[in-house]
Amino acid sequence: MNENWTLFKRNLSDFWKAFRRNRLGLAGAFLVITSILVATFAPLLTPHAPSDIIRDEGGHGLTFAPPSVHGPLGTDDAGHDVWSQLVYGARISLMVGFMAGFIAMFVGSLFGILAGYFGGRIDNLLMRITDILLVIPDLPLMLILVATIRQLDLKISPLTVLIAVIGLLYWTSTARLIRSQVLTIKERQFVARARAIGAGHGHIIRKHILPQIMPLIVANTVLILSTAILVESGLAFLGLGDPTQPSWGTMLNFAFDRSAITNGAWWFYLPPGFAIVWVTLGCVLLGNVLEEMLNPRLTAHHLEGDQNMIAVPAKGAE
Amino acid sequence: MTESLLSVRNLTTEFHLPDGRIARALEDVSFDVLPGQTIGLVGESGCGKTTTLMSVMRLLPASGRITAGHALFKGRDLMQLSEQQMRSVRWREMAIVFQGAMNALNPVMKVGDQIREPIELHNLMDRDAAEKRVGELLEMVGIQRSRRDQYPHQYSGGMRQRAMIAMALACSPSLLFADEPTTALDVMIQAQVLDLLKEIQKHLGLAIVMVTHDLGVVAEVCDSVVVMYGGKVAEYASADAIYNEPQHPYTRRLLASFPDLIRPSDTLASIPGTPPRLTDLPTGCRFHPRCDVKVEACDKETPVLKMIEEQSAEGGAIHCAACHLLHGEEAKFQ
Amino acid sequence: MSDHAMLEVRDLYKYFPIRQSMLDILLRRPANNVKAVDGVSFDLERGEVLAIVGESGCGKTTIARTLIGLEEQTDGEILFHDELVGAHERRARAGLVPLEAGTVGSSEQKVFPRMSMKRLRQQAQMIFQDPYESLNPRATILEIVAEPLVVHGLARGRDERLERVKTALEEAGLRPAEDYFLRYPHELSGGQRQRVVIASAMVLQPELLIADEPVSMLDVSIRAEILNLLRDLRQRRGVSIVFITHDLSTVAYFADRIAVMYLGRMVETGPAREVLANPQHPYTKALISVIPVPNPRLRRERVILQGETPNPIDLPSGCRFHPRCPVAVEACKVTDPANVLVGENHHAACLLLNVAASPNIASGEAAST
């Protein structure tokens, strides 16, 4: 395993060297990592729990207190600390986003690989399922699904329902993307070579297909994350979140319901919106940069090696 | 003495790689193209032959820069022209046949339309006349006029190459660059394409600069040859002299590695090692790590091009080579 | 003699059906086939090098892919060490015919044991044309060369596996092998990559190598090295090679026999030197005449065939070469010529040879004895 470790270290350092030069990527990574850190160390960053009611000297609840009166971000209509809600909300938003994103990525990759690699009937079946999901408008479908599952009273936490619904509806574009990649990789000569060696399907998918599309999967996961967080915020804003575990979307929902805007309590509705932008922008920047970097054909310069122009166009021969 | 059509003098081109390194793709390249003649640029991949073409046409990618040298075409220095002037020279005066015909043709455009495109771009004639010209061009390269409206994928590899040639001839240039025109083709199609090029040259009297790694192709069609190695000229002479009195060790070994059907030997001679990377060129003579006759000076000093035979007034070609083992005056190009 | 040949191919056919549109099926138009290989037979002895030469579209690559089991033959038998390989074996595994032994098709056929694809691939390996495409860009050289061992579950111990990879790389001329273990294909030159491909094909120590245009993508100076390497492997390991190329000049060096293919058929077969020095079929003559000669003083008269290989869907009537043949006569349009013996082990399929056949053989034999 010695050589694998050396290899891993070398790849990592190569990657870092290239990544360091990319400002947009660094900015994206900064945005994503700070939000993850905030979510992880939430209790250390806030003096109050989100459910604590802040009172003034006279023991009265401080409602709609501006930042100048209390804390960094003031209080909401019920006297809760907005900063604490924001920090703890990061946990919920990120968790739903990550879990849903990974489910979507897993299902999408699985469908894409199977459809692309085996082709024929399997491809037809899987792609028709994908098409059906693609043409149904997402938001109404999700609203109906979440509301119906709630009604069933299945003792599943509302967050789990959200995660499952988002994860199981947002894999379609990934599946199509991965399938098209697999289709081209499948035709490449090193796959034919692996077959000529005597390798089976499992081996070819594991050793030859997966490593080629892994960069795509990684970059896409990061992009899907941002979508999942946005969708979660949207659903929560419409009141489908878990009121006991408020995410950023739930906060916006509360702010709207309790007329924060008419009261001019900008410290109540602006921070969650800003937080959502912070994370999704980070994911999009990071995702695009990763996709660009991990694709060797986009970065290699033709003069670096001997594989210069002679080699490429002759592909069409025979 | 004939006036040369294109005189390339001390051309030097560099590429700036994204990580800050500099690749010296061309250094001090000089040669002459006489009207109606074919000159071959020969060498292994990465030796700078394609870069030479692209530098003369000034079609280098953004990372490339021509740092020194001239290219006098009909008395004008191409390196001094504005981009606007250069655009009117390209294709109108000098056209290029790219190596991968499949990649160089637009797959969703009819072949005839693609041939007409350069004519229209340069406003040479009205539509009807251009249409007539397309027909003539197709006939000239041996494609039936009826296939004008077909798409590239309906053409075979050889026909695509012919279409590329027709496109290059569309504006009647006086100089044709051919970048590995036969590399991906079968021997028979290769022979057809070379034959066609010779025919066209005889017919239209144009000069051809042929870039190839195949010495056999060069022997079939070229009048003079520039052997390049690691971005520099190793030897420059008439085709006859290159094949029968090669002076540079690299030329000799290149010739020896070519399979000879007439006198097959048991083992093919080969050149061990790989061509140098342009970012990491060896000191001294660029060929010395692979050379079998190297002397002490080879890894220290860069050999200059030495004149072995002057260009004679009767049209005898120049012969020069860059090797420490050779004796002679340093070659000077006017 | 042919009973002991390592590889026997008999009447191999490979047709690729062209997908029909609904309309065609409704109108009951006959289904068309691309007749890529149309009745080819040959033998290969142990340690022998057979070069299959022809233009693109002549079916040479299809033969290679069928031999290694990447394509299923439409008809015909491939015998490897007197064991059947190819389509029959697959059908057998699907339960259509008994696996162990038995007759396939008509009863007069001989009974051959069958060889599984997996075993065949331990003994026969393929080298592909494009060294830039045939290596997985994300695998290290170590992984690439060790892959056949992994797939076949051989050399399970780490040390043993490393040892075999090292030997294979060094035999392929990549020394010291350890330097290459952790490198990626894009760090190597074209010649080095093709050596890696060869090392990975040789790591199982196969008896048969099928090389599909192994040097056509390489620079001339590198070509010589790869050809010499293949020669050495054949001498040292006694491996047989089916060498597929469109370039006759590269085969002159180490092929024992040459088979010239045109449109799915072998039009001329014979000992390499004999075919090159004394070609009989007009197609072979033309192919030899267009090989570039690396010396302007030796430019020869070249027979450049016009047009290109016709498409293998509608084959020309009679001799399939007649539309491009420089010496075709009227009879060529009607009669499909049979293979005739024109010298020792030297066959060609041309009508004009039938007439000249007997004196030609006589003089040829007289000269050789």
The level 1 CATH classification of chain B is Alpha Beta
Assigned CATH architecture of chain B: 3-Layer(aba) Sandwich
Mean pLDDT of chain B: 86
CATH superfamily of chain B: P-loop containing nucleotide triphosphate hydrolases
Main sheet characteristics of chain C: 8 strands, mixed
| Strand element count of chain B | 12
- The dominant shape of chain C is globular
End-to-end CA span of chain C: 21 Å
Commentary on this structure:
The complex is a heterotrimer of chains A (318), B (334) and C (369). Chain A is 72% helix and 0% strand. By secondary structure, chain A is an all-alpha fold. In chain A, helix 4 (82-118) runs parallel beside helix 7 (158-169) and helix 6 runs antiparallel to helix 7. With 334 residues, chain B is an alpha/beta fold. In chain B, 29% of the residues lie in helices and 22% in strands. Chain B has ten helices and twelve strands. In chain B, a hairpin with a 2-residue loop joins strand 4 and strand 5. Chain B is globular, with a radius of gyration of 20 Å. The mean pLDDT of chain B is 86. In chain C, helix 5 packs across helix 6, helix 6 crosses helix 8 (190-202) and helix 8 (190-202) packs parallel to helix 9 (220-237). Chain C has one domain (2-263): Rossmann fold. Helix content of chain C is 33%, strand content 20%. In chain C, the strands form two sheets. Chain C has an eight-stranded mixed sheet, with helices on both faces. In chain C, strands 2-1-4-5 form a four-stranded antiparallel sheet. Chains in contact: A-B, A-C, B-C. Chains A and C meet through helix 1, helix 9 and helix 10 of A and helix 4, helix 5 and helix 8 of C.
Summarize the structure.
The complex is a heterotrimer of chains A (318), B (334) and C (369). Chain A has 318 residues and is mostly helical. Helix content of chain A is 72%, strand content 0%.
Features:
heterotrimer; A: 318 residues; MetI-like fold; 13 helices; disordered C terminus; B: 334 residues; alpha/beta; 8-stranded mixed β-sheet; 10 helices
